[in-house]
Hints:
CATH architecture of the largest domain: 2-Layer Sandwich
Strand content: 25-35%
CATH class of the largest domain: Alpha Beta
CATH superfamily of the largest domain: START domain
Number of domains: 3
Order of helices and strands: EEHHEEEEEEEEEHHEHEEEEHEEEHHH
Number of helices: 9
CATH topology of the largest domain: Alpha-D-Glucose-1,6-Bisphosphate, Chain A, domain 4
Strand order of the largest sheet: 1-2-11-10-7-6
Low-confidence stretches: 165-174
Helix content: 25-40%
Distance between the termini: 57 Å
Amino acid sequence: MADVHIRKDGLTLELRRDIAAPRDVVWRCWTDTELLKQWFCPRPWSVPEADFDVRPGGRMNTVMAGPNGERFENEGMFLEVDPGKRLTFTDAYREGYVPRETSFMTGYMTLADLPGGGTRLVWGARHGSEATRDKHLDMGFEPGWTAASGQLAELARSLAGKEHRTAPETAGGAGLRSKVRTCLFFREKGEEAARYYVSLLPGSEMEAVNRPDPKGPVLVAEFTLAGTPYMILNGNPEVQASHFSSISVLTEDQAETDRLWQALIADGGEEGQCGWLKDRFGVHWQIVPKVLPRLMDCCDPARAGRVTAALMKMKKIDIAGLEAAA
């Protein structure tokens, strides 16, 4: 992988680094706060606390601690979230677009695939004035971000090494980890799909891949989505997409519903009715706000009928519309 490249362009400071790990792993290192704590500050500094809500308008709060008892609380907000690809964040606002009195910078990071399975990270900061830019340089932007991105690269490589285990024996289920799993059959791109799905839901991870031919495609990808085990069996040219199986996600609120819906229909996915969709890989999903089963409670048939009538007119489920019908 190439060395770090630093760019100083007007009020923008930017670092580029190539990381020997898949993009979904690097994304998780940025968005899973338990992982972010392990690399976000150059040692011996640390991040003892991090509280994220990874969506536009969601909080991005951290506490940075120094070796001599220093403690800096950083309050901010995500402006842009393109799962697996891009984050934009700022300290000009706190959660919910509430303006803050002072602002130091607006940050961004992008991830792009590299040949051979690596990831190109671009991590930058835009400043409102030359004074704040120069302050950032004096604080050690170049050595600090270089060290932190190196810690990120080390962590991502370590995680990727654990997730890319191969099982040379395939008979009798060798290498399969969960006793019971839902299996999804794919023509191709099974590993790509698994890693994309993992990037969308907190508490998800790649567990193992089985590549019988070291130079060939993955045969089996094992992963969990929010703790639920799945596997993808890759390489059946006859497989057809079907509603006989789907992945159902119970979402907390409209923001999570919107985020998952947009991510899953992107790049060729298709909207369905009543919370159903088909993603670009051909897998069917149900994105269901947790309020829906509550409103459909059979103890009130009249309300359930009104909610059902409203639901039948929707593609992506609109919680406010359901509640209004109830």
